[in-house]
């Protein structure tokens, strides 16, 4: 079953702009993770934020988590054409990882 | 870091035949492994959770007799798609949990095409 809802479903921006993707979920979680997937390929783990954390940074990535609203956001700053991919949030709860519907990001050079 | 090897990466099979996909944790013991299916332009759907030495737990709507999962050792889980049909064509991805670090590591996926 899907837990996360992501928006937007698709996002098209110019190189250098920031990209923000949002994720909402339904149940209590241990942590929330963001993954990236290039077309037809495996997953790349980007960042994990625990339920007791509110914000986390990793390079050009910034993730926030609001457990009261059951939502998270992923910000990619100064985007590059190579950031073009699908991005998924995944919630870790009850011993399994459930993925959101994903956001397809296109960064135009 | 933890590595999960998944084979084959691509397979084409005829309708009605069975296909086995392997998922191996190379440098850690995986207490739990997960199998996901992903249709084009869609997200990953969890199919089942397998624990070494016990029966797999299937998600609602997943046919356990069609998708046979065996987790015979702490480093190997297999998914067998039995009597495959074209609608089973999909991208299948496994994930293994390191019981020590409790991190999820994903295989590179298997693209199954049933003709």
Question: Layout of helices and strands, plus pairs?
Answer:
The complex is a heterodimer of chains A (109) and B (115).
Chain A: E1 5-7, E2 10-14, E3 19-24, E4 31-37, E5 43-50, E6 55-58, E7 61-66, E8 71-76, E9 85-93, E10 96-99, E11 103-108
Parallel strand pairs in A: 2-11
Antiparallel strand pairs in A: 1-3, 3-8, 4-5, 4-9, 6-7, 7-8, 9-10, 9-11
Chain B: E1 4-7, E2 10-13, E3 19-25, E4 30-38, E5 44-51, E6 57-58, E7 67-73, E8 76-81, E9 90-98, E10 104-106, E11 110-114
Parallel strand pairs in B: 2-11
Antiparallel strand pairs in B: 1-3, 3-8, 4-5, 4-9, 5-6, 7-8, 9-10, 9-11
Give a written overview of the molecule.
The complex is a heterodimer of chains A (109) and B (115). By secondary structure, chain A is mainly beta. Chain A is 0% helix and 59% strand. In chain A, strands 2, 4, 5, 9, 10 and 11 form a 6-stranded mixed sheet that branches. In chain A, strands 1-3-8-7-6 form a 5-stranded antiparallel sheet, with no helix packed on it. In chain A, a hairpin with a 2-residue loop joins strand 6 and strand 7 (61-66). Chain A is globular. The mean pLDDT of chain A is 93. With 115 residues, chain B is an all-beta fold. Helices cover 0% and strands 56% of the residues of chain B. Chain B has no helices and 11 strands. In chain B, the strands form 2 sheets. In chain B, strands 2, 4, 5, 6, 9, 10 and 11 form a 7-stranded mixed sheet that branches. A 4-stranded antiparallel sheet of chain B has the order 1-3-8-7, with no helix packed on it. In chain B, a hairpin with a 5-residue loop joins strand 9 (90-98) and strand 10. The N and C termini of chain B lie far apart (37 Å). The mean pLDDT of chain B is 92. The A-B interface holds A 1-2, 33, 40-43, 45, 88, 92, 95-102, 104 and B 32, 34, 36, 41-46, 49, 59-60, 91, 93, 95, 104, 106-109, 111.
Which structural category fits the helices and strands of chain A?
mainly beta
Oligomer: heterodimer
Regions with little confidence, pLDDT below 50 for 5+ residues of chain A: none
Total strand segments of chain A: 11
Task: Specify the overall morphology of chain B.
Answer: globular
Distance between the termini of chain A: 36 Å
Query: Biggest interface and its residues per chain?
Result: A-B, 19 and 21 residues
Kindly report the average pLDDT value of chain B: 92
Structural class of chain B: mainly beta
End-to-end span of chain B in angstroms? Answer: 37 Å
Instruction: Describe the largest sheet of chain B.
Output: 7 strands, mixed
Give average pLDDT of chain A, whole number. 93
Rg of chain B, Cα atoms, Å: 13 Å
Using only C-alpha atoms, the radius of gyration of chain A works out to 13 Å
Helix content of chain B: under 10%
Topology of chain A as a string of helices (H) and strands (E) = EEEEEEEEEEE
Enumerate how many helices of chain A there are, as a single number: 0
Runs of chain B with pLDDT <50, length 5+?
Answer: none
